[in-house]
Design brief:
Layout lengths: L4 E8 L5 H9 L12 E6 L11 E3 L2 E10 L4 H19 L6 H14 L6 E10 L4 E4 L4 H15 L4 E4 L6 H11 L6 E10 L7 E4 L7 H8 L3 E9 L3 E6 L3 E7 L1 H8 L7 H22 L20
Antiparallel strand pairs: 1-6, 1-7, 1-12, 2-4, 3-4, 4-5, 5-6, 8-9, 8-10, 10-11, 11-12
């Protein structure tokens, strides 16, 4: 659960009863694409049990899952068929369609091919921690998170307002300081993966993979103006992740000390145990990460970015 995390602050919300939310979710339950339908989006059961609950509450934590099914039609196939049809029309009429006629012909070909296209599905987990006022989306970019977050706002109502979490220091500024001083923030250690980019049109990039970062060369890159865009870290020896300059957590992994403790519990695994385990660890990690980044900013304020660069 939660290989990635984008964090949103719930700025305001008067939550409806769980039964009301479940009823609204049921009205948007996922249905597979029809034969000629290019895309379908809806909510599916987080437990993976057919006809089960679409809103799961575990220890006060709300878990939802959105499913998107797309039926991509290869552009090369459309292009080939379109050219064949255009040549046939030109032979029959003496001219090739252009403008609106060309667009309509292309759309007709796509519609014709859709029933034969292979469907591809993707799932996005969402975790709502009402007590902490946070929403976490299992996505590594805002682009992927936009659709489920927009649907969540429509679904939950109650005047819910969300904003991406903002901190006093931009992640790029903080990561540059940690690497340059070779001093990780309290509770964290720096691992062996890092990416730096020059903040100009060239976007010169340096990557270190499975490499010690306690080196003069890396500090020199930072001194020359390159900024960290990704940095692998570990929290309390319990959770490893990659922090990005957009304040996204990628490649989240619970480490052995956590998993061994979980398997020793008498109740064993299962969905509830997994949710409790992951949310419990991240509820400890996130406040420490916010503190390491100088504390939280109110929504709408800009983080302190690196000199000469745009704030993250």
């Amino acid at each position: 659960m939660f290989k990635n995390a984008l964090i949103y602050r719930i700025d305001h919300w008067n939550p409806p009863a769980p039964g009301v939310i479940e009823e609204r979710l049921a009205g948007q339950r996922f249905v597979a694409c029809a034969a000629s339908q290019p895309e379908s989006t809806g909510w599916v059961e987080p437990r993976g049990q057919a006809h089960g609950a679409l809103l799961e509450l575990v220890g006060g934590q709300a878990i939802l899952q959105q499913c998107v099914e797309r039926k991509p039609v290869p552009a090369s196939t459309v292009k080939g068929l379109l050219e064949e049809r255009l040549q046939q029309i030109e032979r029959d009429t003496g001219r090739r369609p252009r403008g609106k006629g060309l667009r309509e012909l292309k759309e007709a070909i796509v519609h014709e091919l859709l029933p034969r296209a292979f469907a591809k599905r993707s799932h996005t987990l969402l975790w709502l921690d009402a007590k902490a006022g946070l929403l976490l989306v299992d996505a590594a970019s805002m682009k992927k998170a936009d659709a489920p977050v927009t649907r969540l706002l429509e679904l939950f109502g109650g005047g819910m307002r969300l904003a991406p979490l903002q901190t006093q220091l931009s992640p790029a500024t903080a990561m540059a300081q940690w690497l340059a001083t070779r001093d990780a923030p309290a509770g964290f250690s720096i691992d062996r993966d890092c990416e730096l980019k020059q903040p100009d049109s060239e976007k010169a990039t340096v990557r270190y993979a499975r490499h010690t970062l306690d080196i003069d060369e890396l500090a020199a890159h930072i001194g020359q103006g390159k900024l960290p865009t990704q940095l692998a870290m570990t929290w309390q020896g319990r959770v490893s992740f990659v922090l990005t300059d957009a304040l996204a957590l990628k490649r989240i992994k619970l480490l052995d000390v956590v998993l061994e403790g979980a398997t020793s519990e008498p109740e064993g695994g299962g969905f509830d145990a997994d949710v409790a385990l992951v949310t419990g660890e991240l509820r400890g990690l996130i406040p420490d990460l916010i503190a390491a980044l100088g504390g939280e900013l109110p929504p709408g304020h800009a983080s302190e970015g690196p000199k000469g660069a745009e704030p993250s």
